[in-house]
Write a structure and sequence with these properties.
binds zinc ion, alpha/beta
Length: about 325
């Protein structure tokens, strides 16, 4: 099969021919890839920033995978050959305390498809049956692949904030990219307050208008004026540079909550500002299997639209370059 391999950090991915993955355990499943979303985390992995998360080259990237079940181990009961499935990217044992608390991201035996083990920038990927989420009839894998990471990350972050999203509240989405454009819709669908979208790129501001943001701004510094001086009750940061971290904290209302979904920058804030404002700062790490399942229900109901553009697997490096340059609107999906 074909696979796009990260053989060394700081280099383009290498398209290689390798053997199809083989079932090793009795609950293993081989999925034939229908689509694999391309994420900023892939760039972070190429840049060597993901080593603390267990990323070791060589590895096949691709953690937003959907496709059809191709082969199943002897004890698999959750799926049959031919089923259309989304692949929840985190491997989890189901037995440890974090798993039993429903925090699969913190499984003591944690692995992550497409980062710490081979992923879906390939014809086939090997996963555990616990990873599979069946697709509703009529849903094409390539159309929903980015929900496996971009989608659940947005859903997980927004779901935690629901008690704050009361009528009269204001939320801000910093960055209307692959994850931000989903969060914007979830804030509208699940919350009762107003949503302000901020993006420096006119194409992404256009997308935010299409997705019915209450207000769309080019400059984060304008949020305070747009809220009559009160500031934002909730800020979700999908850009996560030093500049957006600072701007996000600066625009918070009293008792506001700043939540970072993106990562990469340094958050620095005077403690007096936290105390005076009784501010809350939180981080978000992907989401759980049930987050993905719930998000699919919303998708099936038409409450969330995933904006995607598909490209052949062979174009993986061109697509990664475009993502790095900020030239992707919505999510790019590789189709083998
Ligand atoms: Zn990702
Ligand atoms: Zn576990």
């Amino acid at each position: 099969m074909r696979a796009a391999l990260l053989s060394e950090c700081h280099r383009p991915l290498e398209l290689v021919e390798r053997d199809e993955p083989e079932l090793r355990g009795t609950r293993d499943v081989v999925v034939r890839i229908g689509g694999a979303g391309v994420c900023a985390t892939d760039l972070h992995a190429i840049d060597g920033l993901m080593e603390p998360a267990g990323v070791r080259s060589p590895v096949v990237l691709g953690h937003e995978n959907a496709g059809w079940v191709h082969a199943v181990g002897d004890d698999v009961t959750a799926a049959s050959v031919g089923d259309a499935v989304l692949v929840y990217p985190a491997w989890s044992c189901g037995l440890c305390v974090p798993c039993r608390r429903g925090h699969e991201m913190f499984c003591e035996r944690h692995r992550f498809t497409g980062l710490s083990c081979d992923g879906g920038f390939a014809d086939f990927v090997l996963v555990d049956e616990r990873s599979l989420v069946p697709l509703p009839a009529g849903v094409e894998p390539a159309a929903v692949a980015p929900h496996a990471d971009a989608g659940i990350t947005a859903y997980h972050a927004v779901k935690k904030l629901l008690p704050r999203l009361v009528p009269g509240s204001t939320s801000v989405v910093l960055g209307v990219g692959g994850v931000g454009h989903i969060a914007l819709q979830l804030l509208r669908a699940l919350g009762g307050g107003a949503v302000i979208a901020v993006d420096t790129d006119e194409r992404r501001r256009g997308l935010a208008r299409e997705l019915a943001a209450d207000e769309v701004l080019a400059d984060a510094a304008d949020v305070r004026e747009a809220t009559n001086g009160a500031g934002a009750d909730v800020v979700l940061d999908f850009v996560a540079t030093d500049a957006t971290h600072a701007a996000g904290m600066e625009m918070l209302a009293r008792r506001g909550l700043y939540s970072t979904v993106g990562y990469g920058g340094m958050l620095s804030v005077p403690s007096v500002a936290l105390v005076v404002g009784e501010s809350t700062v939180v981080g978000n790490l992907v989401g759980t299997w049930i987050d993905l399942w719930e998000l699919l229900q919303l998708h099936g109901r038409g409450d969330v639209r995933l904006v995607t553009q598909t490209h052949p697997l062979e174009d993986v490096n061109t697509v990664l370059d475009a993502l790095r340059a900020g030239d992707v609107t919505g999510r790019a999906v590789l189709v083998p």
